[in-house]
C-alpha cells in the first residue's frame, strides 16, 4: 500500500461521508443479494449496523497513514467477527460489495486508480482481520490450561 493509495482512498472517502447512510444501505443490499446466507449474521436494526460500518471504515481510512496504530484494533475486529460466524471466504464477498458500493456512490469519481487503491487498502485491512480471526479460532480450539498445585494460592 503506497502513500498514493492512501491519499486516493482518503480523498474519495471524504466524498462518501455526506451520503454514508445511503451508501451503507447500498452496501448491505448488495451484500445480501450476493450471498443471502450472510443475512443471518446480522440483527434486525440494519440502520444501526450501517452506522457502525461507516464508523469502522472511517476509523480505518483515517488511520491508514499510521497503520501501526490501528493494527491491533483491526485484528480485534477480526476476532469479534469470527465469533459472529464470519468465515474466511466472506471477506471476498464483503470486498466485492464494498467496491460495488463505492462505484455506485462515487460514480465517475471512482476511477480505475481509485478502485485499485481501495482494493489494495481493503486487502490489507481484510488480511489483518483474518489474522485476528485465526487467533480467535486457535484460542477457541485450544484446550483450557489445567491448573496445577503451583497455581494455588
The CATH first-level class comes to Mainly Alpha
The third-level CATH topology is Globin-like
Q: Domains counted in the coordinates: how many?
A: 1
Catalogue the unreliable spans: 142-153
Number of H- or I-type helical stretches: 6
Order of helices and strands: HHHHHH
* Rg for CA atoms: 18 Å
In whole angstroms, the N-to-C terminal distance is 50 Å
User: Which homologous superfamily in CATH is the superfamily?
Assistant: Globins
Largest sheet features: none
- Overall geometry: globular
**Name given to the CATH architecture:** Orthogonal Bundle
User: β content, as a range?
Assistant: under 5%
Which helices and strands, and how do they pair?
Elements: H1 3-16, H2 20-34, H3 46-63, H4 67-84, H5 90-106, H6 112-141
Helix pairs in contact: 1-6, 2-3, 2-5, 4-6, 5-6
Amino acid at each position: 500500500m503506497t502513500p498514493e493509495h492512501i491519499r486516493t482512498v482518503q480523498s474519495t472517502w471524504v466524498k462518501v461521508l455526506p451520503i454514508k447512510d445511503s451508501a451503507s444501505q447500498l452496501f448491505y443490499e448488495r451484500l445480501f443479494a450476493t450471498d443471502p446466507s450472510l443475512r443471518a449474521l446480522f440483527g434486525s436494526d440494519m440502520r444501526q449496523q450501517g452506522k457502525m460500518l461507516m464508523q469502522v471504515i472511517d476509523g480505518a481510512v483515517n488511520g491508514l497513514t499510521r497503520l501501526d496504530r490501528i493494527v491491533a484494533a483491526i485484528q480485534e475486529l477480526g476476532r469479534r467477527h469470527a465469533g459472529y460466524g464470519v468465515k474466511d471466504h466472506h471477506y471476498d464477498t464483503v470486498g466485492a460489495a464494498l467496491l460495488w458500493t463505492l462505484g455506485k456512490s462515487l460514480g465517475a469519481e471512482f476511477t480505475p486508480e481509485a478502485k485499485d487503491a481501495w482494493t489494495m487498502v481493503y486487502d490489507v485491512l481484510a488480511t489483518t482481520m483474518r489474522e485476528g480471526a485465526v487467533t480467535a479460532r486457535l484460542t477457541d480450539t485450544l484446550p483450557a490450561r489445567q491448573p496445577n498445585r503451583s497455581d494455588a494460592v
